Amino acid sequence: MTTVYPIPENHPQRFILHNEVHARSSVISGLPVRASHLALSRSTDEKNDERKHLNQLCERFGVASPSPDADHFSATFDSFQLRWEQHGEFSTYTFYVQGEESKAFAEPALKKVPVDWLSTLAGKILVATHATILPENENYDLPEIAPYFANNAIVGSTVTGGAARVFTDFRIHVDGFSRFLILNNGLRIEQGARLMHRLFEIEVYRVLALLAFPIARKLSPELKKADQQLYTITNAMTQSSGNDAKLLDELTMLAAEIENHVSSNHLRFEAASAYYNLVEQRLIDLREVRIQGIQTIGEFIKRRLEPAVNTCRSTSNRFTSLSERVGNTSQLLRTRVDIIIERQNQGLLSSMALRAKMQLRMQQTVEGISVVAITYYAASLIHAIAASLHEFGFNVNPEIAEGAAVPFILVGIGLGFKRIHHIIKNMS
User: Fold this and answer.
1) Is 11 domain-assigned?
2) At residue 427, does pLDDT exceed 80?
3) Domain count, the chain
4) What is the percentage of the chain residues whose pLDDT exceeds 90?
């Protein structure tokens, strides 16, 4: 793209990022309208095959297929419109059909979708819901609306600045779908599309936030068990007769178990918190005003969803806290073991020093004895030599020669030992 100003070249992603705000435009062309929304969890293999399955529908109706790297797609088919979005851990399909029904939820949009293609959708259903936008009139009062929800307790409110009323019972009906009834009192087409999409997102994110709740309940006994085990270990550490090596092994195993739980479920708990934040934001976007006699959607969801999310957050925080406590206890126990080992090493070094001192004393004693022995044998040798000379006629007295040689022998031996000690010292 050329520019009329001498500015630097565009970032490779500039136009993609700039146009992202327009990427998910509404496919609704008018009101009233009805929609069916599916949210499916997908494995990696199923996500890879998802586009192929979507391409089959496009080829069937002669519609251009989405690009290979697309994560959203909107198109109009013969009798319905489709909006597809692929998210990190789930995908959504929303089918729209224009026109008013003879009776709400009697002819949902999903009936217009080819059954054979719909039956081959891969994944597991997380959310399945119908929604319909009908014109507001005096016949739609609470007693008249209740039969559309099997006479269940209804929640609802006036939304979008009074432009519509929304009703639901947050229950799965006999067809396997939940329901939203939207009564139009001045909605523009874009407003209706956004309102319907927000309601679908509230339903999807509400369920996704609750995925962590069964995990939190399952981990609760494990958390109590780990907490009790840590108490047992710390209590044993206060006893002077405790086996620190055994306690350290138990603490290491406990730390491994806790870290396994934390690493296995951390992402799920973080996702639950993030999804709950999205639900809260979508509820704010509705701009609800109470309808006398029934709960608003926000009140209903918060009263039931908030305790579950708080349980998940509490479980996550308790595991994190327990992991920190185990780390502190482990550090304390290792410090105590290191001190004991240091004391043992000091005792061993003292013992080795005492033994070395004793060996030195013994060596000195042996050296003294060795001097006497060497002197005796050297003097005896001189005595024998003097005696031999005396026998040959020399005037040599063996006893005098032997006695006179002793001092010289002692001096020589002393100088010899001193020389040996000097050599050993230089070698060390």
Assistant:
1) no
2) no
3) 3
4) 49
State the CATH number of the domain containing residue 244: 1.20.58
pLDDT tens, position by position, 48-105: 788 899 999 999 999 999 888 888 899 999 899 999 999 988 999 999 999 888 788 9
Q: At which of 347, 374, 393 does a domain end? A: 347
> Is residue 244 domain-shared with residue 108, that is, in the same domain?
no
Asked if pLDDT for residue 2 goes beyond 70, the answer is no
Same structural domain, 103 and 148: yes
Q: What are phi and psi of 248, to 5 degrees?
A: -65, -40
Q: Which domain holds residue 389?
A: 362-427
